[in-house]
């Protein structure tokens, strides 16, 4: 690559750039966002940050022009004719490698990247077609890939000629709106692998700045065109942008870059461009790359609360904050924001309680600083419901649980046990609040009508308290539940506003009732006469307490037959009925219960998948990480029993590893912070080696007898973790 000539590379263009910039200044000093002046890395001109108000002004400047000046904005300029094909180019590269003569390749690169017109002439599939729709960018992706794959293996003078050409294009005077050819050039230049090298970051920053400053309409095209890029190239562009942001925040060699005050617009520009790729990724199902691939773990090490407060105070228009682009913030960082926001709310409410006591000249006590829940084990649900309803004003205080008649002090263990027992009881099939679907291994809300939905509010409050107090719950809701929970993410002031209703699809139903969803999918693909063969109407039937009840999916639905023409509407209304309308009152109570505890602007930062991870933990296990963070009591990590244990556990199947985690902690999922956050402990049991291992789930503690050999330990451990349901709850 360019490592060897990093320092001299930009100085090579110094006179060239200085000349052009002097000519521009001779015409008039314009502060255009497209201006590129790089006489020296350390003297880059300070430019205003890219944010909504700046971009709005740039956008409106065209509209304020007199009508006679708007007319001359011409369509696409005519392109030069270039006939080189992918094979021609690859043959030239192979010949150059064999002969050592790179003239033909050098000419191709220097010509192709000399201007935006030349880029289009080389890479546009048909130079005579406009390609002005979002559906087809008109870019020959195969040719672009071939040219960029070969670029880093060419001599440095070839690579420098490409960068010189890019500077040429960026220095172009813009006299009107960008054409589709300009957008195509931006789309192609973003894929340039040279921008992985820090020596090119000044050029890269100005490219990003110009793209960030485009109009919303232009961004719309770039988003749709970007989703057609190959997964490999898409991931490379995203990684390059993330690396650019990381190295600008924490440069390995600060002298390589201009001072931060001189390039404060770098990070906002890069983040804005990254948001276009995130938008493109969200348009595809399944997405091109995982949403976690947009996380920048470097942000875990900045002052997140300052970012959060800037966002709260200034919104999206005046000052840049990463919270404006939450897709880039990792779930671990979001958890930190939510925890600190929760702690600040806890402290604020506790302080207010203290002030109220003192102002009434009452003696303060420590209990007033906590949400104290006192319950009887024999009346767990009813007592918990009464306590949370009675102490609604204290829900944002630190939770402490007391079991009546027991002397235990809650240092975290009793709270976890309370959650564990309560969740198990509420979600038991006999309780009737939730239906367990064996095919999907998840619970869903019962559609049975009742007079009081307060228990659903209790479950929502429990989930909120778990997030608020950093407790992981063993709850199996489908992803659709968390999507509904964020609809909307902030509780509306008007209580007549509909909540918990979101757009649902057949895919959402597949995650809950796969058999029914499969049947509806068969209906959609049926090639015969739907009306005659299925004889269905826009009506559904449900059994409630032994009575079959019918519901119309639309007015007079019982009189409207399902046909080949309207079956899509029927399926959509059926799915909406099952996942939204039939359980509206139940879910609305659940929604208000959750938000009564977790009401916070921090929820705006979360995706539904991230809410699920905060509530239930992550399903991805790393037993080696657990081994590294495990604490021991009565054992040393070099003792034979411990060595046997880890040899056995690391050799377990994923199913057995999950069973072990569930046996020891009450959940087979991992907290957001990873295995280290479990505070897992193995204690030496003085019981006979004939006994099975014992677990204290409230403390994530495994009590292990000193088994004599690996075979005996494995046998006893598998028996213990495979038959653990109901052990040790009383």
UniProtKB/TrEMBL annotation:
Gene symbol of the encoding locus: Hectd2
Annotated PANTHER family: HECT-TYPE E3 UBIQUITIN TRANSFERASE, UBIQUITIN-PROTEIN LIGASE E3C
Physiological role: E3 ubiquitin-protein ligase which accepts ubiquitin from an E2 ubiquitin-conjugating enzyme in the form of a thioester and then directly transfers the ubiquitin to targeted substrates.
Biological process, per Gene Ontology: protein polyubiquitination
HECT domain segment(s): 391-730
PROSITE patterns the UniProt entry points to: HECT
Active-site residues, record numbering mapped to chain: 698 (glycyl thioester intermediate)
Keywords in alphabetical order: Ligase, Phosphoprotein, Transferase, Ubl conjugation pathway
Protein name (Swiss-Prot/TrEMBL): Probable E3 ubiquitin-protein ligase HECTD2
EC number(s) recorded for this UniProt protein: 2.3.2.26
Catalytic activity, as annotated: S-ubiquitinyl-[E2 ubiquitin-conjugating enzyme]-L-cysteine + [acceptor protein]-L-lysine = [E2 ubiquitin-conjugating enzyme]-L-cysteine + N(6)-ubiquitinyl-[acceptor protein]-L-lysine
Pathway membership: Protein modification; protein ubiquitination
Top-level division of the source organism's lineage: Eukaryota
Gene3D superfamilies: Hect, E3 ligase catalytic domain (3.30.2410.10), Hect, E3 ligase catalytic domains (3.90.1750.10)
GO molecular function, one term: ubiquitin protein ligase activity
